[in-house]
Input
Amino acid sequence: MDSNIDYVDLLSKGENVWNKWRINNPDKTPCLRDINFVSEFSGCTFYDLPEFHGVDFSNVDFNCSSFRNSIFCDCIFDGAKITFSDLVDAYFQSCSFKNVNMRVCKIGDAKFNDCVFEDSDLSYCSARNTSFHGSSFRNTALENISFVEQCH
Output
């Protein structure tokens, strides 16, 4: 990890700038820990939710981040660390989640349409009302994942 790089600023410049930087810096592991996508990347109004198309998020450290109410289409999350994160109400379309660690996340009400989960770990996630329509799972750990609401 390189602490001299502002990864939020780099991603703010758009997917072309981000992806070009990723190609030119394959040895870097971007750190977007504790990021809140809505507060960092929303537009000027309440309805301008963050959208990302074709972004290479492979091997990014997203530990304890909030993807809540964000949209991701054709993005690559291969090798990413998304542990202890909030993906509630996030929308993922045709994204790749190969070798992803997504343990202990809140993914309730999220939509994963036509996504690929391979050699990944979604154990201990809270997934109430989560949709995986058209998604595929291969060698993916789903230990103690909860698809029902817990009563208190």
Summary: The domain at 1-152 is CATH 2.160.20.80 (Pectate Lyase C-like). The chain has one domain: 1-152.
